[in-house]
Design a protein that fits this description.
- The chain is mainly alpha-helical.
- The protein is built from 21 helices and no strands.
- α2 runs parallel beside α4, α4 crosses α18 and α12 crosses α21 (about 440-455).
- The chain is globular, with a radius of gyration of 22 Å.
- The relative contact order is 0.14.
C-alpha cells in the first residue's frame, strides 16, 4: 500500500508537468482548425490571406520552440526543472492572448512565436523532470505520458476547433498554462537537481514525497559530494566520448521524429483530407485521426516497459514508411486519372494516415523524448537537452515550412514518398545504432556509454556492437562513478 502511495505521487507529479505538454499539443494543432476558419471569416482581419502568410502562421510556433531550447537548457540548470516551467507559464498565457486579439499577420505570428517558445520550454523541462523523479520500473510508462498529453492536447484542439470560432479556441487554449500553475504547489522540484545544487534537506524532502521515507531508500542514495555539486559545465565537456555518444543518439532520434512529417499531418490534417477529394468530412477525419492517436499512445504507454524501446522504434519507423508509400500511391493514381479517384481506393488516405499515426504514437513519437531523458549524461543534461531540443524544433520548422512549397514543386505524391524514405532509412539507423534502455537505472545506462567509450573510436552515431545491450542488475555491475543515484532511478 505504501509503495502504491508513492507511485501515485510520482504519477501526480508527472501529470502536473505534462499539463504544459498538453498546452504544447494545443499550440501544434491550433493551425489545423483555426487557419481555414480565419481565412474564410468574411470581414475578419485574416480573410483570404495568402498561402505564404498561412504557412508562416502555421510554422512560426516551431521556430519559437527552436529559440526556446538554449534558454531552457540554461534555466533548468539555474532555476530547476519545476522552476523553469513555472517561470514560462506566464508568457505562455500572454502569447495566447496576443494570438486571440491579433489584428494583423505580424501580430498573429508574434503570438504564435511566444506560445511555441513556451511550449518548447516544457518539451525540454518535462522529460528531464520525469526522468529524474520516477522509479526505473515505471519510468518508461510515465515518460510516455509526455506523448499522451501531447496528443490529448491535439485531440482537444481538433474537437473544440470544430465547434467554436478560432478566437474562442485561442482563449480556451490560454487556460491550459493556468491549470499547470494550479498543480505547482503540490509537487516538489527534481530531487536530483536539488542534490546537485547541494540543497540536501530539500532533496530529502522531495525524495520522501516521491519515493517514501529516506530510511527505505537504497544505500546508494546518499547526497552527491560537494565537489560534484559545484562542478562547472562547459562546452568542452561535450567532446567527452561518454557525453557525445548519447547526445549523438538523442539528436539522431529527434531528427528522425520530425523528418517523419508528423507535424505536417498535425498542422495540415484538415487540408490533407480536403485534397483527397474522397468526400470525407475533413474536420471529422482529423478528429478520428486524433482519437486513434490518443488510443495508440495509451497502448504504447503500457507497452514500452514490456516490449522495450528499441523494438518499438524499429517497427515504428518501418510501418510509418510503408504507410506514406501507400498515401503517395493514392495521390499519384488520382493525378494520372485526371484528378479523379479510381474506384475502390477512397478509403486509402484515411487508413494510411491512421496507420502512420499509430506507428508514430507507439514508437518514435514518445520514445525519442523518453530515450533523451534517459541517456544524456547527468553532468551536462541541461546543456545537451538544449541542443537536442534545438534540433527537434529546427527540424519541425523546416519540415512544416517547406511542406506546401514541396507539394507545389514535386507534387503531393512525391512529397509523401520523400517523407516515407526518411522513415525507412530510420529503420536501419535505429537497428544499427540505438541501444536498449528498458529496465536500466540511469546510472546503468551511463555505465553502458562509459564502457563503450573504451572501445571503438567515436563516430557520428554509435553502432550496437559498441553497447553491451543487456547489462544485468548484479553486484558485479554496480556502478562506481560520480553520479548521484536516487532510489534506483
Amino acid at each position: 500500500m505504501g509503495n502504491a502511495k508513492y507511485i501515485i505521487n510520482q504519477t501526480v507529479a508527472t501529470i502536473a508537468v505534462t499539463t504544459g505538454i498538453f498546452g504544447l499539443g494545443t499550440v501544434l494543432a491550433w493551425s489545423s482548425p483555426a487557419l481555414p476558419d480565419m481565412v474564410n471569416e468574411k470581414n475578419g482581419y485574416f480573410y483570404n490571406i495568402s498561402i505564404e502568410q498561412q504557412s508562416w502562421v502555421g510554422s512560426v510556433a516551431t521556430l519559437g520552440a527552436l529559440a526556446s531550447a538554449p534558454v531552457a537548457g540554461f534555466t533548468v540548470e539555474r532555476m530547476g526543472r519545476k522552476g523553469t516551467m513555472v517561470l514560462f507559464s506566464f508568457p505562455f498565457i500572454l502569447g495566447w492572448l496576443v494570438v486571440g486579439f491579433a489584428t494583423n499577420v505580424i501580430m498573429m505570428c508574434i503570438g504564435r512565436f511566444i506560445t511555441g517558445f513556451c511550449g518548447g520550454v516544457f518539451s525540454l523541462s518535462a522529460p528531464l523532470y520525469i526522468g529524474e523523479s520516477v522509479s526505473s520500473n515505471i519510468r518508461g510508462m510515465l515518460m510516455n505520458s509526455f506523448q499522451l498529453m501531447l496528443v490529448t492536447g491535439i485531440l482537444f484542439t481538433y474537437v473544440v476547433g470544430t465547434y467554436v470560432p478560432w478566437k474562442t479556441l485561442t482563449l480556451i487554449s490560454a487556460a491550459i498554462p493556468v491549470v499547470f500553475l494550479f498543480f505547482v504547489p503540490f509537487i516538489p522540484e527534481s530531487p536530483r537537481y536539488l542534490r546537485k545544487k547541494g540543497q540536501v534537506e530539500k532533496a530529502d524532502n522531495a525524495l520522501s514525497w516521491l519515493f517514501g521515507p529516506l530510511s527505505a531508500e537504497k544505500p546508494n542514495s546518499e547526497p552527491c559530494d560537494k565537489d560534484e555539486n559545484e562542478s562547472k559545465v562547459s562546452y568542452k565537456d561535450l567532446l567527452k566520448p561518454d557525453v557525445i555518444k548519447p547526445l549523438a543518439v538523442a539528436l539522431t532520434l529527434m531528427v528522425l521524429e520530425q523528418a517523419s512529417a508528423f507535424n505536417v499531418v498535425i498542422f495540415y490534417c484538415v487540408d490533407i483530407f480536403a485534397q483527397t477529394g474522397t468526400g470525407l468530412d475533413s474536420y471529422w477525419s482529423s478528429i478520428i485521426v486524433a482519437i486513434v492517436q490518443v488510443l495508440a499512445t495509451v497502448f504504447g504507454t503500457f507497452l514500452v516497459d514490456r516490449a522495450g524501446r528499441r523494438v518499438l522504434l524499429i517497427w515504428s519507423e518501418f510501418i510509418m514508411g510503408i504507410s506514406f508509400v501507400a498515401l503517395g500511391i493514392f495521390f499519384y493514381l488520382k493525378k494520372i486519372n485526371d484528378d479523379h479517384i479510381p474506384s475502390g481506393i477512397g478509403w486509402l488516405p484515411l487508413v494510411s494516415v491512421l496507420v502512420f499515426i499509430i506507428a508514430f504514437s507507439i514508437g518514435i513519437g514518445p520514445l525519442s523524448w523518453t530515450i533523451m531523458g534517459e541517456i544524456l549524461h547527468p553532468d551536462v543534461k541541461g546543456l545537451c537537452s538544449g541542443i537536442a531540443t534545438s534540433f527537434v524544433w529546427f527540424s519541425a520548422f523546416v519540415v512544416t515550412k517547406i511542406y506546401q512549397t514541396l507539394v507545389a514543386a514535386v507534387g503531393i505524391h512525391w512529397s509523401f514518398w520523400i517523407f516515407s524514405s526518411v522513415s525507412l532509412l530510420g529503420t536501419v539507423i535505429v537497428y544499427l545504432y540505438v541501444p536498449e534502455t528498458k529496465g536500466k537505472t540511469l546510472e546503468e545506462i551511463q555505465q553502458v556509454f562509459a564502457q563503450s567509450s573504451k572501445g571503438k573510436r567515436l563516430s557520428i552515431v554509435m553502432p550496437v556492437q559498441g553497447f553491451p545491450v543487456n547489462v544485468s542488475n548484479t553486484e558485479d555491475n554496480s556502478i562506481q562513478n560520480r553520479n548521484c543515484t536516487v532510489n534506483g532511478v
